[in-house]
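User: Predict the structure for this protein chain, please.
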Amino acid sequence: MLQSKGRARARTWTSTSATKEKVLDAAVEVFGEHGFTAATMAEIVERSGVSVGSIYHHFGGKTEVFNAIWEDFVGLLRSRVDEVVQAARQGGETDGFELFVVGTREYLWLIWENRAQARVVAMGDTPPGFDVQRRRASRVGGTVKSRCSGSVRRDGSGCSAISCSPCATRPRSRCSARRPRRTRKS
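Assistant: Here is the predicted structure, written as C-alpha cells:
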C-alpha cells in the first residue's frame, strides 16, 4: 500500500494479458487508420494508455506488435474453422465439398466479426519481409517468427525473422546472424 496525505491507497496493477490486449486493440486502430509505416509507437501508447516501456517489454517494438496481431488473428481463424469442420465430421458429414462449405462459412463470418484486424493484415502495409514470412508460416502451419534466432540452416539460408534487418535485407546465404560451425571431414 502507498501512503498519500494520511490515506492508504492500493496500487493497481494491470494483468499481463489485459495490458497486451489494450496494446493490441490500440495498435489495430492505429495500423488500420495509418498503415504500419505511418503508425507510431507514440500513438499506440496514447490510445492504449499503457507506458511505452510496457509495450517494449511485452512486444519489443512496432514490428512485434504487428506480428502479434497477425498471430492472434490467424490463430483464431485456424482454431475456429478447425472446430466447426471437426464438429461437422463428428456429426456424420463426410462429403468433402460440404466440409469445405462449413469451413468457408465460418472463415468468412470470422473475417466479418474481426474486420478491423482483417483490414490491418490485408491492407499490404506491413513490416519489411512480412509477406515472405507469412507465406512460409502458412505452408508449414506455423506462426510468424518475430525475432532473429541467429540460426543458419544447412542449406545456407539465414534465419527467417522479419525483424532481423540483416536477414530481411540480404540474401539468406549472407545473413549476418551466427554462422554454423564448420566440421572437419574425417
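The beta strands are 2-4, 7-9.
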